[in-house]
Structure formats: C-alpha cells, structure tokens
Amino acid sequence: MIKEKWHIVLLILFIPLFPIDSVGQERSREQEIEQVIESIRESAEDETESALILDDLTHLAEQPLNVNSATATDLEKLHFLNFSQIATIINYREKHGEILSSYELNTLPGFTPDIVARIRPFISFAQPSAEAGKYRRRGRSYLLLKGQRLFPESRGYESASASEPPKYPGTPERFYTRYHYEKAESWSAGFTAEKDAGEEFFAGDNSNGFDFYSAFVSVQGKGVIKQVNIGDFYIRTGQGLNYWSGMGAGKSADVLNTMKSGQGIRAYTSTDENRFFRGGALTLGRGPFEMFLFFSDKNRDANKVSEEPLVFTSLQTSGLHRTEGEQVDKLSLNERVFGGYAQLKTNHFRMGITYSRQMFDGEIQPGDDLYKQYYFRGNTNEQAGIDYQLAFPSVQLFGEVATSENEAVAGIQGIVWHPHPQIGISAVYRNYSRSFHSFYGNAFGESSGVRNESGFYLGSEILLAPKLRMDFYADAYHFPWVRSYASSPGSGTELFSQLTWSPLSTFESYLRGKTETRPDKISDGGTVSTDVDETTTRVRLDTDWDLSETVTLRNRVEYAGYKKADDTESGWLAFQDLVFHLEKAKTECWIRYAWYNTDGYNSRIYAYENDVLYHFSIPAFYGKGHRMYLNLKWAPDRWLTVYLKGGYSLRPGMETWGSGNDETEGDSRVDIRALLRLRW
C-alpha cells in the first residue's frame, strides 16, 4: 500500500535516530501543553475545546506556580499531580522548609524524573518578581478575538432552488470573543461569546449578535466565606460519578493518572453551550471542613417532539443552531439543579458527600428501542454520593459510590502504589449500573456516560534505566445490557504499552502499541443482528528532537489495523513537523506535512495538530490524502500576541468531501483560523 511513499516513511523513521546533545534547551511550555492534551484526549473523535485545562496550563506557563507558597488547590491546577503527590509536597515543606530546586523534588517519594520534567515548565521556587507583584496588586485583563473559515463553502449555504432558502441561513465564519479580568486572591470576572459556522450573526434569531453568551463573576473570600460564584460555572467533585465538567483522568499514555482530584466550583469559560451551570454558588469552610451550595436555572437544547404535553426524546449537546430543526431544539428545555457538596480534608485524607436534585419542565421519553430501556425517563432526578481519598507515603486509595433517584448504584475503587522509586502501579475497579442516571458525570471508564459498565484496569510505569521507561495497561470490561452498536450484553479488552527513550534533554522517542477487542453487531441483511468481535490495532513511532535553540524536529509513523468478521482494513499515517523559535523576531512557527493511506473510516488515524491559543484539534485521517498546515505565533510585545493557522487538505481523486449539508465539491479543503490576544 505504501510503496510509492516508502521514502517519506524512511525519512521520518531515521532522521532523528542519531541525536547529538548540542544544546541544553528544555522543552518549551507549548510542547508540554501539547503532550498533556494529546495524552488526555488521544481517544477523542472530533475537534474539541476544553478551556479549563488550557486556562490553567496557559496561565501557569506565563505565571509559574511557586511551589513553596502554593496551596493544595493551587497544585491541583497543574493537572499532573495526584492527591498523594500534592500531600507529599505540603508535608515536606512543613518538615524541611522551602524546596530549593527541581533536583530536590526528585528526591521526594512518588516523584519520578518524568513527573518532575512535566511540571518543571509550570513551577518556580523563587518569590515573584517585582513586575509580577505589580500585576498581582492591580489585576490583569486579557481579550481574545478569534475567527475561522473553511473553503470551499458546503452545500448547506446553497439554495436548492430559486424558491428555497439555504439550509444554513448564516455565514460560514465562526467568531469567538472572550474577556477575562483577574486580581490575584481577590476576584475575577469575564464573558465569552460565540457564533458557529452557519449560524446567523446580528440577524434573524441572533439579532443581538452572537448565538451563545456566557459570563461569570468569582469572588475569593476570607474567613468562613471562601468563594462566591455568580453566573456560569463548572462543578468537579469526587471521582466524577455525579459531577465532573471538562477533562478528567481516564485511560491514556499516563497510565498512573487514574484518580481525579475534585476542585469544587470553577468559573466557566468554555463554549460548550449546554453542559455547564448558570446561577450561583457559595463555598464555605473553616479548618479541615469545607462545603459549597449551588443553584442553577437555565434553558438547554433538547429534541422536542410534543408541546402538550411537553415531551423530549433526548438532550442535545452539539451547540449548533443552523438548520430549522436545530433552531427548534435551541434552549427548548428548562433545567433547574440545586445541591451541595461537603468535605472533610487534611493533607492525607479527604472525604466528601454529594447531594443534588435536577428538574426539567418537560418529560424526557427516549423511545422504545431495546438499548434505551434503562435510559432516564421522567422530569426529576436526585443524586447522592460519598467519596474519599487516602494518601500514604507510597500508596493512595480512592473511591466513590453514588446513587440516583431510581436507587441504581454506581461505584469506583482504585489504588495507586509505588512499591519502588522506579515502579508505579495503578488498579481501578468500576461498576456502573445499567440504570444509573448522571447527566453531568464523567468517570473513569470505557464508554461515555456513567452507566451500563463494569471493569478492571491495571496499569504500571517502570523506569527500566535512567533514560528508558516502560508504560503499559490492561483493561477488561463488561456491558451488562445491550448498546446502540451491540445486540446483546458483551465484554471487551484493551491492551496498551509504550517504551519511551530520552537519552538527552533535547531528544525523546517512544514506540507505542495498542489493541482493543469489543463486541459489535452485524446484520444478516434482514432484521436479525448478531454480535462479533471488532478488533482495532495501533502501532506508533514518535520522535521529538530539539536540534538547536531555534529548531525542533518532530515526526511520527503510525499503523492502524481493523478486523470485524470478514471485514478487514489497514492503513498508515506519517508526518514531519518543523518548529522554529525565532526569539529576535518574537515569532514561533509550526509547519507540518502529513501523508496518510488507509482502507476506510474504520482504519482512521488521529493526530494532534498545533493550533491557536485556547483551541486544539485532533482530526481523523482516513482514505488517501495529504495534509499540510502552517501555524504562526507572533508576540511583538507583552500586551499583544497574534496567532494565525492555515491548513490545506488534499484527497486525490475524490469528487466531494464530507456528507449532507457539510459536503463540499472537489478533492481539497482549506481552513484558516486567526486569533488576536490583548493583555494589560
């Protein structure tokens, strides 16, 4: 299949295999952010934006966290450290005083060289500079303005006839703006506004401008009142059975990252138009006790099928309001939620209790399909749960048990153990009832939603040599009820291994293998379906090499295999990245050429792409084609940063691209995205 491109594969495989340690440059903060996001989101199947993790890491890249004064809540924003590691830092400071360098961090229990390397770009050991102190006293603001466009226009913008309007009444641009003000340890406020491609802008249903608006005010209190949130906010508690917004621990290359550390109430700054809370929250605390109370009242998108009585079949989460049907669903269901969370926490122990009640102004009736038999039905749902975390020097335990109004139960229990400084082990057992209902849950598991799943996960990280690390995990899971893509209950397995070699501070390479087998249904051409094993296999070789302080070389080759009964597919992807850090020109530049050739969608391959600030994409590549992009960052002054990304995709021989209203003519597409950031 790849004979005509063998020279590209060889180039990518062998160029970086003979590094020389010509410079001592550490990996840039942008590289670390990229690796974290790709690790966490490597299973994502579409372009996703998650402002929470990007907010935290981007903020810490510009204002590193002082390890010697940071609280446990501050350290949780690193997204790298677990409960035990955070407790270790705090206890060490109390016993031995300030930590002087990253070398000292390496001596702490549970801190491997890899963990220290990942957090190093986002932390500091010195007191803030005079300039940083000035901004802490007076506060700081930033404003983002972003626009993007895809060429050529899709069918949705064309009229089927002279008498019919286009399916998409709006313009093909996506516009996004965001303002944020923060005064450290005092208060913050901001707003977000967005219009998706195809939605109207200052016209029609959006005569006031954007299709979506979000705003928040967060005040940090002193004494018993710790925080007050007004407007839009996230909730993150326990292990995510009841509430967890945004990204969280899950199966990834970071095999020990299986435990969540709930952060309570966080201001909402993303563009997901449905999965957030709008109202108010109050956080109280004294000593080891802390609690928050919240109330939310907002309208959200839902698929309405009847007015009297008011009946909906499902909740919509795309946030798209382009076609007549999407506009009918827009904000059609009112949702009210109230509840609270109370926890008792020390440096080594945390226990929390959750309660909430959710009410809709219409009935949700998902239909009579067999796989929907245990879906939520009705207009109210109560949830309650209890969670804990317990940290010892080399062992941490965590777990949560939750129940919904119908008395169904979901539970998760895990352990992370470091029996030796060079060995880490993580094990997680979860059991989610097929009828457990959690609309905002996001817990460790195989499938989305916290329901209809049980499983056992075992992962290990082993430092084989000072520059050589092995990571692997095995996950065996079972679905006790049928799903939309399977006609009967079934079980699956997933195996992952990765060997990482870092001979120099400027060079890293890893070889990864992953295979998963799970049941999927096939039809005999009539009404009878049976389940067969569906197996996917991935093998990847990736290298990252800082040739100098100016140039970084990245490359990857990946194979994908697929088998389901007599249906088999396979394919390859290879890409070459060049990254330029032009300090005198205040410019950074990312250039990629990617080639791919797969038999079809089932053998698709995902690859992270560098993008403008607060945006990232992990597109799927399938068929035969090429992808090139140029991403620029220009920062002539501290107050101004300009980002520009242009991409070109080519699939030779294809007459159309996409499907339905998003179909475009021709074998190529061009995408452009620009962002302007102002800071003061």
Summarize the structure in words.
- Helix 2 packs antiparallel against helix 3.
- A hairpin with a 3-residue loop joins strand 15 and strand 16.
- It is built from nine helices and 33 strands.
- The chain is globular, with a radius of gyration of 25 Å.
- By secondary structure, the chain is mainly beta.
- The chain has a 24-stranded antiparallel beta barrel. Strands 1-2 form a two-stranded parallel ribbon. A two-stranded antiparallel sheet has the order 27-28.
Looking at the structure, what is the overall shape?
globular
**Count of individual beta strands:** 33
Proportion of residues in β-strands: over 45%
Rounded mean pLDDT is 87
Number of helical regions: 9
Tell me the distance between the termini.
54 Å
Class per helix and strand makeup: mainly beta
Approximate helicity band: 10-25%
Which stretches are low in confidence, meaning pLDDT under 50 for 5 or more residues running?
1-27, 43-49
Rounded to the nearest angstrom, the radius of gyration is 25 Å
Largest sheet: 24 strands, antiparallel, barrel
